[in-house]
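Entry:
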Amino acid sequence: MDKYLYLNELYDFYKDLFTEKQQIYFEAYYFKNLSLSEIAENNQVSRNAVYNQLKIVEKKLYAYEQKLKLKSKKAEIKELLKGNIDDKLLDRIDTIL
């Protein structure tokens, strides 16, 4: 799986565990596709500060998933339910998870 897509999916589960600045930097880089320099300029910090925070977030996302497995569990639940319920209910369950 593409690294960016995987990190975005993990971020959906764990974003509330990060500081506001970490969220701003991550979303600017991964969602808005801004460069490190653009993010640094927008937030009046150094490019290196943005880079370091992004690396911290990435490392923590992998660690959280390794320990908590929320993304993996969601995928497993969806797979178990597939074929047993209609798509509308599966979508509703997906929203809850």
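Residues 47-68 form the longest helix (22 residues).
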